[in-house]
Design goal:
Oligomer: single chain
Number of strands: 4
Strand content: under 5%
Number of helices: 14
Shape: globular
Length: 341
């Protein structure tokens, strides 16, 4: 059932549009104030204003612009991207438990990053190699799933499980051979996910692919409604199911590979946030996708802020997303057993 506060006459209400725009902006502004050195909203706004005018002499410039802003920008992009990819896969495979790494992209990306860390590559080289391995892993998955009639969804998922297990094994072997005093801690910390190394240069490398993938899924989101139907019903629509499915798989894969290559593994976002969006506006992807993008960006900002400010030592993102995401998801399941589909 549609929530009339959000949707009326098959369109988003003004309240809904403003909420989706203001929520991540307000969350980002508040979180720019929070950290080891707390700032007031006025100080943050003044710093942003000075930066826009080219004044870099402000005392708070380094804190707001150089340290916190890149992390928040990356959190917005990663949160929106993983939510979008999760939403696409859940509709594509008609499985509410599908996640962005269902085709093995995360495992492949992690192997690339592990190799880069062992070879003492720089941050940018690590990101590019991780992205390349993530795309290769999904390419192998799609080759394995191909048959005479194209690609079956069931075989695609099975191939993803196989490739994921294979790359996980390769990753474990690489970690086993890594230097336990130097490389292994770096690998372990990277795999748990963090925005510690966030920079504008790193964002410039990874974000174009994420934003392109989000744009593709957003513009074609109504087709997800058809792909989530049974095979016979979907064919009756006249849509080229194979090509459309391939476009969504590629878009979601590129998003996931780019996100993981920038910040490591971040779980639960692509699983939890799409369900939250559907609770607000129903299962129609015309509405669930844009709402999910706003919620995902806002949630990721909050998680990163907790990560860097909750203790003296920065906590990995995957730990916080699991600690917060698991209880929330259990609560959603108990309260909405029949509506989460």
């Amino acid at each position: 059932m549609k929530n009339t506060v959000w949707i009326r006459h098959n369109k988003f209400t003004i309240v809904a549009v403003l909420t989706m725009i203001i929520l991540p902006i307000a969350t980002a502004l508040i979180c720019l104030c929070i950290g080891r050195m707390n700032l007031s909203i006025g100080e943050v706004i003044n710093t942003l204003s000075d930066a826009a005018k080219g004044n870099r002499q402000s005392q708070n410039y380094s804190i707001v612009i150089n340290l916190r802003a890149p992390r928040i920008v990356m959190a917005i992009i990663v949160g929106a991207g993983l939510t979008c990819a999760g939403n696409a896969f859940q509709s594509l495979f008609s499985n509410p438990l599908a996640t962005p790494d269902v085709l093995g992209v995360t495992s492949g990306t992690c192997v690339g990053a592990i190799i880069a860390i062992i070879m003492s590559m720089g941050i940018m080289q690590t990101q590019l190699l991780a992205l390349a391995f993530g795309l290769i892993s999904v390419w192998i998955t799609m080759i394995l799933a191909r048959d005479r009639n194209g690609q079956s969804v069931v075989f695609l998922v099975l191939a993803g499980v196989i490739i994921s297990a294979l790359f996980n094994a390769v990753g474990s072997l690489l970690k086993y051979t890594a230097d336990p005093l130097d490389k292994l801690p770096a690998i372990t910390y990277w795999l748990m996910g963090s925005f510690t190394s966030a920079s504008y240069k790193k964002i410039a490398v990874g974000s174009p692919l994420i934003l392109a993938g989000i744009a593709v899924i957003y513009m074609m989101r109504w087709k997800l409604n058809i792909l989530s139907l049974s095979s016979d019903e979907a064919r009756a629509s006249g849509m080229d199911l194979k090509k459309t499915r391939l476009v969504f798989v590629l878009a979601a894969t590129v998003i996931t590979a780019s996100c993981v290559s920038m910040c490591g593994q971040v779980g639960w976002i692509g699983l939890l946030i799409p369900h939250c969006a559907r609770m607000l506006v129903g299962s129609n992807n015309r509405y669930a996708v844009p709402v999910g993008i706003s919620l995902g960006a806002s949630f990721m900002i909050i998680i990163d802020t907790f990560s860097r400010s909750i203790s003296v030592i920065e906590l990995p993102l995957s730990i916080l997303t699991a600690i917060i995401g698991a209880p929330v998801f259990i609560s959603l399941l108990k309260r909405n057993r029949g509506s989460l589909h």
